[in-house]
Each structure stands twice: as structure tokens, then as C-alpha cells.
Amino acid sequence: MPKLSLLIQILLFVSTLTVCSLGFAEQTNIQKADKIFAIIDSGTIDNPEAYNLHLTQLESLISKGDTSRQLRLQRALCWSFNPYIKEQIPTALAFAKHVLTNPKLVNFPDHKLDLELCHTWFSEKHGNVEAALKGYNKIIEEAYARENLRLVADARNMRGFLRSYQGNFTQGLEDLLIAHALYQNLNLPAWAHSSLYEIATSYRRLGEHKNAIRYFKQVQNGHINKQNFDGANAISVSIAIAEEEQGNLEVAKTLFEESHDYWRNNKKELEQATVAVNIASTLIKLGEFTQAHQYLDEAEPFILSTDTAFYSFLHLFRAQAYLAESQLSQAHKSIAYARSAFSRVKNIRGLAQLQLVESQAFLKQKDWKQAYYALSEYMKLHIELDSKQLSSYTTEMRTRFNADQIEQENRHLIENQQLRELELAMLEQNELQQGIIIFLGGFIILIVSVFAYKQIQKNKLLSALALTDDLTQLPNRRYIYAKAQTYFEQAQRTESPLSVITFDIDYFKLINDKFGHEVGDHALKLLADTCREVLATQYKTARIGGEEFLVILPDTDLAQGYKIAQALVHSVRYGDFSQLPSGFSMTISAGVASLSTADSKLSLLLKKADQALYIAKTEGRNQARMG
């Protein structure tokens, strides 16, 4: 028997050596692949040829059986398509759609989310702006739920850019500022640098030119320090646009001409064309219409209709020049091209400028009726833009006021993510050293397994604590407010009903004073159980303060919400309190409110529910009232 045991040990040892020798070669390839993925994720590759070369290397390094890295490669391939080449956009959409049918993605939700983000981004470039916004909203919500901060930052950065371009500066700036903070916390300087440019652009569109130029120069200095003169020159164009919008036309013209000469000398025709479009605007304001047409003629062969931003403004500037020269039929043709492009991406700012040009063209034709109509549309769009710009100042102040809170939440999520990454790295390391671990014995395997299990449990606990009330095990304030905002925006978009219920325990302080805080805590737990029984999983309930609770009722009108609130009041009043001390009783008061057209913000809807709750309290408690 001892001889047999010795034979088994020898066989195990030989097998271990074989496994190790085969594994080391595979391990080398895995390490090389992971380094390439890290480079791709860093955002430092700005050359398509270099990017494609990395993809080719990955294809040779990753084995067919390595499902996770194969899917990671598919993600990288999806982002490799060029959105500035018209034919590649539908190809990218088809590619992403095909990969998303892979059944293995069920076990890799982060890979699936990133592929959905890629599909959404190319949908935006294809002109499906509404679908893109819905996609970004969904991805951001799921990324937060999974605490995948990189995907949160990427999706909010893309959504912020789109919102800002459309003229929705309020939400655009908030998205971009949060994305920038996340990129910094995740130590992704290239992406933080990129998002800073979008923030500067949003400030420029908002009319905050001094702030915009200050941020642009920060970005430009970063490019110069890295000797990225192409990037620095591109920023010069943005500074020129800001100078033009401030009325510094000669300064803007000089900057544009320098940039145009730079791209021409470097033989980059597309970049040269984009500058030609921009300089035309300055020349028109200076009255140099012939030269403006020359630049636009130069740009037109390279600016495709898929590049909506430059295509729309190219035809807007054409229309302005034709108008100044009284070539009205040509002006109307350019207006039609520009309107189609601006409408496709819902660019309110561009449409407003276009309506003004059209009204002036009709005035020159003495078509008073059409001129009046075009001017009326201009005023509507201008009022909408003014409203969004005013609210943007409020957003910026609110975002800065909440900066510490955002930073703290981001730090907590990053710590969780780092724990998961550490756990994954340890598991992979254990897998690679499997032969050595077998040789050393089962005792070490047991220790590592226990440690990994504890790490997993710790991560789950941290994630749950971040969004759950510890006492009642209901969602907490942060979770329900984020969820409520999502339902609020969805209800506004789809014009569907949405109601909320706020309620609290009557005379809760007296309960604590009479029976003690332990009984009070038990009462809160019973109330949470009652909410689960009455509301099931159809509605979202959360504890938002001491004895205060909030219920979100999607697709529910005021009458239905009131019935649900009455059911809650009734269930609590006649609840089973036999586990509590003799003489204990408990009631609640509730306020119900439903979304109306006057509720432009979630806070207004919640305020109505609070007012209804106050009425229920003043009228005797133990009841529900509608707001």
C-alpha cells in the first residue's frame, strides 16, 4: 500500500511538470494579450493603423477556449470601425448586432454592456439620436447597478456630448463633469483629457467663452507637452470659434488660417476641410463673401452627410453667404440641406440660427407671411435655448456643490472595483500555478479558496450596503432617488402615468419614548414587511429617513396610487403586533401625487406628495391624502 501511494505521488509530480511546461507558454501569451488590452483601454492609441496592428496581435495570442478574452477582443473590434467613413457605420452596427447574439455573453454582462454601448454610439453616428439616448440611459443604469465605473464614465461622456450638441447644456454638462471625475479617479489621463475638451466645448456653446478658452488651453498644453502637435492644432480651432463668438473676428481669422495652413502642409485633407468650414463663418461676419465661398467649395467634397456637425454648418454658412449676396434661391436650397441635418440630431442651436437666416431671406423676397412664420419659429427655439442656458448655471452650481459627495461615492465604487480586480487577478494566478499548488498540497488550496470566498462575500456585502438600508433591508435613499429620476424621465418621454407615495409612522417619537428604540426598530422592520406584502415586486419602496418611506409607482395614475396608499394605511392599522409589547399599536399617514405637465423636475412631484402627507397629518393622521 505504501508503494502504491508513492507511485501515485510520482505520477502526480510528473503530471505537474507536464502541465507547468505547457502552461508557461500559454501564460506568456495571456500576459502579452492583457498588456495590449491595457494599452487599448488607456485611450492612448490615436492611430488606426496601430490600433489594427494590436488587434491582429491579439487574434494570434488568444486561444479559442479563452471565452472571456475572445469576447473582449470582439469589443475591441467593434470600436475599431471608423465613424467618419460612411460605409463603415452600417458595417459596425451589423457587427455589434451579430456579436450580441452570442449566447456566451450571458455569463459576461460587462462585455455585453460594452458591446451595447458600441452599438448605441454607432446608432448615434447613423442619425438615430432618439434610439441612442435611450440606449445610453439604459447602459448607464445597468453600469451603475454593476458598479462598472469605466462603463459609467464612457456612457456618460458620450451622452453628455450628444446632449450638449443638441443644446441640452444642463444635463450635458453634468454628464461630462461626472465622466471627467471618474476618468481621473480611474487613472485614465487620456480619457480625462478628452472629456475636458468636451466640457470646454459645452461652456463655449453655453456662452461662457472665458471658461471655455481656459479649459481649451489646458487641453492644448497637454497635447504640446506630449508633442502631439496635431491635437494642439485641433484645439486652436476650438479657441478660434470661441474668439469668433466673442466678436474677436480678426483674432479668430488668424487662428483659423494658421490651423488651415498646418493641415494643408501635413496633407490631411479632411482636417483641412473642417477648418475651411469654420473659417467661412468668420469671413461671412467680416463681409468677405467671395473668400468664404472659396473655403466652402474646398471643404464640400470631403464633408459627407454622415458627418452631421460639419455638414449642417457648411450649408448654414452657405445660406448666410447667399443671403448677404441676395442669391435667394441658392440660399433656400442650402437652408433645406442644413435643416435636414440639424433636425436629424435635434440641434436646437443650429436650427435657431437657420430659422433666422430663412426669415431674412423671405423678408428680402417680400414674402411677409413666410417671413413671419420663420421668425416665429426662431423665437420659439431661441426661448427654448435661453431656458436651457439659464438652467445650466443652476446645474453647474449644483454639480460643484455636490462634488464632494460625488467624489466620495466614486471612491467607494472604485474601491469595490479594485477589490474585484484583485480577486480576479488572484484567481487567474492560482489557475496558472495549478501544478505547483497540487505539488505543495491541498492545504494551500484550501487557504486560497477560503480567502477568495471571503473576498467575494465581502464584495457582495459592500455592494449591498451601498444601496440598501441596513435595518429594513429595503433600498436606501440614494438608490430610490436614482430610480425615481429614471422613471420620471421615462414617463415624460412616453407620456405615461407616474405616481409616488410618501408615508411615515404616526407619533414615532412617542413609540420610541414609551417602548424603547429596540421596539421602534422592530416596528420599522414590520412596516417594511408590510410594504413587501402589499406592493410585491411591482413597485419600488425605500426607506429615505428615520421613519420616512417613499414608493415609486410607474404606469400608475393618481386614483390607482391613492387606492394603493389606502391599502398600505389599512394593512398597517390592522397589522399583527403580537410580537411587540402589550398595548403597542401603529398607524401611518401617506401622501400621494401623480406626474402632471407642470412637473418639470422630480423634486416638484415629490414636493406635492410631501404636501399631501402634511395634509393627512393635520387632518388627524392614520389616513392617505392626494396632492
Automatic annotation (TrEMBL):
Catalytic reaction annotation: 2 GTP = 3',3'-c-di-GMP + 2 diphosphate
PROSITE patterns membership: GGDEF
Transmembrane stretches, start-end: 435-453
Keyword flag Transmembrane helix: yes
One GO cellular component, as annotated: plasma membrane
Presence of keyword Nucleotide-binding: no
Cofactor: Mg(2+)
Family annotation (Pfam families): GGDEF, TPR_8
GO biological process: cell adhesion involved in single-species biofilm formation; negative regulation of bacterial-type flagellum-dependent cell motility
EC number: 2.7.7.65
Classification via InterPro entries: Diguanylate_Cyclase (IPR050469), GGDEF_dom (IPR000160), Nucleotide_cyclase (IPR029787), Rev_trsase/Diguanyl_cyclase (IPR043128), TPR-like_helical_dom_sf (IPR011990), TPR_rpt (IPR019734)
Domain spans labelled GGDEF: 496-627
An example Gene Ontology molecular-function term: diguanylate cyclase activity
PANTHER family given in the database record: DIGUANYLATE CYCLASE DGCM-RELATED (PTHR45138:SF9), REGULATORY COMPONENTS OF SENSORY TRANSDUCTION SYSTEM (PTHR45138)
Listed NCBIfam families: GGDEF
Official protein name in the record: diguanylate cyclase
Naturally occurring in which organism (per UniProt): Shewanella pealeana (strain ATCC 700345 / ANG-SQ1)
